[in-house]
Amino acid sequence: MTDFGTEDGYVGAMKGRIFSIAPQATIVDITHQIPRYNIRFASFTLLNIFPYFPEGSIHVVVIDPGVGSRRRALLMEVGGKIIICPDNGVASLIFDRYKELKIYSIGTDWISWDISTTFHGRDIFAPAAAVLAAGKEPDEIASPLNEPPVNFMLPISLLGQKRLQLRVLHIDHFGNIITNLHKSQFEELGIHEGVKLKVTHGFIYGIKKTYSDVGRGQYLLLWDSSGYLEIAQNQGNAALSMNIKENDELILEY
Amino acid sequence: MTDFGTEDGYVGAMKGRIFSIAPQATIVDITHQIPRYNIRFASFTLLNIFPYFPEGSIHVVVIDPGVGSRRRALLMEVGGKIIICPDNGVASLIFDRYKELKIYSIGTDWISWDISTTFHGRDIFAPAAAVLAAGKEPDEIASPLNEPPVNFMLPISLLGQKRLQLRVLHIDHFGNIITNLHKSQFEELGIHEGVKLKVTHGFIYGIKKTYSDVGRGQYLLLWDSSGYLEIAQNQGNAALSMNIKENDELILEY
Amino acid sequence: MTDFGTEDGYVGAMKGRIFSIAPQATIVDITHQIPRYNIRFASFTLLNIFPYFPEGSIHVVVIDPGVGSRRRALLMEVGGKIIICPDNGVASLIFDRYKELKIYSIGTDWISWDISTTFHGRDIFAPAAAVLAAGKEPDEIASPLNEPPVNFMLPISLLGQKRLQLRVLHIDHFGNIITNLHKSQFEELGIHEGVKLKVTHGFIYGIKKTYSDVGRGQYLLLWDSSGYLEIAQNQGNAALSMNIKENDELILEY
């Protein structure tokens, strides 16, 4: 997963390096269209794909505006799966969901080639994944992290009078608006589904099961496929129609 | 093949699930840039790639505006190859070309995880392909279809006076305009190649062999690489230059 | 690597054909977003990914505005790696960097299917790679080239008075401007790093190590990850901000 786009050869060079080290590897493109430098977007995407991959998978995430600076390179291990990424918050939602994560800082002792100052994806992150795929253990290339990793938070605020302040976590390809309210929190709060969400020209009432529970062009609330509260427009683009953007605040009444 | 785009983690989650069920699978991205909900576009793309894949290939097509509604999930078998898709017309051109197709409706008995109402790509279609790749037979997850599948038609109309009314089946990445007239129909009608196609400011005459048979910027007719009549502009974008859109009508005289 | 985009089935058909001939092949997408017909862009991308791939890799490059004309199809061999592409200059930067290249012209004797006049990617280039992957030798499908291949050149001009005229070789996804001045030429000229580059509203001074050596939004010069002189804007889009385009001229003083 990168924000490199697919026009240039950046991703190709990373793949080449992986195959040079681990010819038997299977490389899976998650996405290279993360909006440039958008750490939050990448964090959400990582959280959404990670549970579906099997043990032994190694996830390389390169959204790295601080490349060449002194930011650390992280290696994380949980449930037999590994994540490799810069220490810039891109794994924040993973920290939040997987409390049993082991976190290491990747060194450079194991690297025999020149490390460019602008492309650690090719020179550190992808090769780190490749040497693990080829049989090295995490502690051969990394050491335990001695300071906490960079983390961003998007808390839900309880406003009182049965109101919650949510934030927009993500706008997806279809214009669906994904909020930071997870079904598990909703259930912890003991909320019945008689909710209403305030939007520009009124309210959206209740939580539906699927898009086609409302007419074409109508808005609805539902739990998205990862368990977050989503605002959608049946066969339309909710974010565009309602002019809602990432990180916007929303008020949910119950 | 999906209309999910490649910005989000949707395709990644499908791939993760496939590898969790069938670790030895080879996953081939056809395209995830099918225009949103454009069943006709996907149908044309499927028809164009299907013949080139070998026996044993399993094609997963998720263009699914009706996800979560009662639309069926199809499994089709022809020539040792399988197609898995929603029953919404996306396989119409395949129905038309492969009369010997065996068609099944996919059940959910074999599924042990929660099925979300909004993402059957991850929860039904991709896993159906994966369990087949891992050795299951179609009749272990699907049963024969008892009603005909959804089908869209784009017939060619004979207008008399040696005129045919065609429709635009597809505009490709280069702006080439692909019509619904296949070379085999053309030959059945016994047309000689002295044809002319009416466009906004005049006619395009004759059928050429290749783009460079005309000067740069000039229009031409030719048979596209799948055998459909195509309108092109040498090193230009015919659809943009002539303002022609998908599903437009065109008159061919012969 | 192609300029076919990923909306249509063109790339998928190429992949299908490869798997039909060489079922054990591993296919790696480099990019299908090369700007249409942009041979220079593709040449630069190929140069940037090629060194990172292992021996035995076969690189298929289809940017082919002359498809169907009499342009030749090339097969090149260097360091145990192969490149297959049309003879239209797309390998120019490879010719320049790898003087020991063996170059062949691909014939069509070995092809048993119809060759369309518009899609040699599917009918010649991808299958040529596949038959090599499946064990054929280059001289079974190609013969030595008897005339030099098409080549484009982008020389650096020495203007005298310690000034060099550079050209913009490439604008990348981040808006970084890559010039045609390679670090090796720079060192051959014996230039100290006290350089200044003239841009619209002034000069950029000196060569930095990495983006974060300057403040957010500031411009800098640095050596890109392939060794070319690059103009960047820390966390910004230099090409957009300075309105600089591919092939523009730039003056470097030293």
Order of helices and strands of chain A: HHEEEHEHEEEEHEEEEEHE
Structural class of chain A: alpha+beta
Q: Oligomeric form of this entry?
A: homotrimer
State the helicity of chain A in percent bands: 10-25%
Provide mean pLDDT of chain A, rounded: 92
| Largest sheet: number of strands, sense, barrel closure of chain A | 9 strands, mixed
Biggest interface pair, residues each? A-B, 35 and 32 residues
Number of helices of chain A: 6
Topology (SSEs and partners):
3 copies of one chain form a homotrimer.
Chain A: H1 10-21, H2 39-49, E1 58-60, E2 73-78, E3 81-86, H3 92-97, E4 102-106, H4 120-133, E5 142-144, E6 157-160, E7 163-171, E8 177-182, H5 183-188, E9 196-199, E10 202-205, E11 207-208, E12 219-223, E13 228-233, H6 238-242, E14 249-253
